[in-house]
Hints:
Layout: H1 8-31, H2 34-45, H3 49-53, H4 57-71, H5 82-92, E1 131-136, H6 140-147, H7 160-163, H8 169-174, H9 187-208, H10 212-231, H11 234-237, H12 246-264, E2 273-277, E3 281-286
Antiparallel strand pairs: 1-3, 2-3
Helix pairs in contact: 2-4, 2-10, 6-9, 6-12, 9-10
Amino acid sequence: MVHFYDSAKNLAELAQHTLNSALCVARLAQSLQILPLSRQLTNLAGNLWNSSLQNKRAERNEMLLLHEFHKKKFVLPDKENNFAKKRQQRDSAGLDDADEPDQGTTGPRRGKAQYSGGLVLEPKAGLYDDFVIMLDFNSLYPSIIQEHNICFTTVERPNENDIAKIANEAELLAQTQLPDGTTEEGTLPQVLRRLVESRKTVKMAMKSERDPKKLQMLEIRQKAIKLTANSMYGCLGFSNSRFYAKPLAALITAKGREALQTTIAAPGLVVFSSLLIAVCCCYCYCCCC
Length: 289
C-alpha cells in the first residue's frame, strides 16, 4: 500500500481500485436484490433491518415467534446463556465444579441426546437412458409441523433435566408424544400456515401481473416468505436459540425421514432404483417397458 503514495499516478490507481471494489459490491448487491429482499424479511419478522443484512436468521425467527406469542398473551422466559445451561446440566448431573467434565475435549458431550437429521443417501452413479423422476416435497418440514400440529404448546416432551439423562434418539422420541386430533392448533403451525397461504396468494398475483417492476417486487416477496417458512425449523434445533427444543427438532426430522422412505415404498409407484434421496426430495429411475 505504501508505494501507491510515491507518485500522483500511483495514488490515482489506488483511487480507481477502491472505486472498482465499491462498484463490484454495489453491483453484486443489486444483482442479488439484497436490499429489497432483506427489507421484506425484516417486515415479516419484525426485527432490525441491520440484523437481516447480517443474515441473522435465528434472530429473525426468534423475533417473529416473540411477536406471535406476545399477541396470544404468553409470558416467555428470558433467553438462557451458555453459562447458565452448563451450570444447569452440571447441577442436574450432581456434579460440582471439580467434577465438571472438560469442555475442551472432543467427541459427543456426555448426557446429550443426539438426533438424526434429514435422510441423505449417496447417489448411484451411472448413465440412465430412460426416465429419471424427481419427487419433490413442497416445504417438507413446514408441512410436517402443520400436519402433526407440532408446537411448544401441543407436544408432550421431556424437560431439559430429563433430556440430559437420555442416552439415544430412540428414547428421546419415545418420550415425545404428538398431540391428538382434538388439540387446538399451536402457535407454530398457525404461523407457518399463514406464511404458506400468504405465499400462495403472492404467487397467484404473479400469474396475472404484467408490470415487470411489480412482478419483480412480488417475486422478492414470495422468496422472502419462502425463506422465512423454511428456516423456522432451524430455531428448534439451534442450541443458542431462545426457542431451542431438541425433542421437537428430532420429531420433525424423524417424520421427514419417514415420509421419504414411505414414498419410495409406496404401492403403485414402480421404482426400480432409487438414485438419490435428499432431505426433501428423491430421484427415482423408472424403466420404460
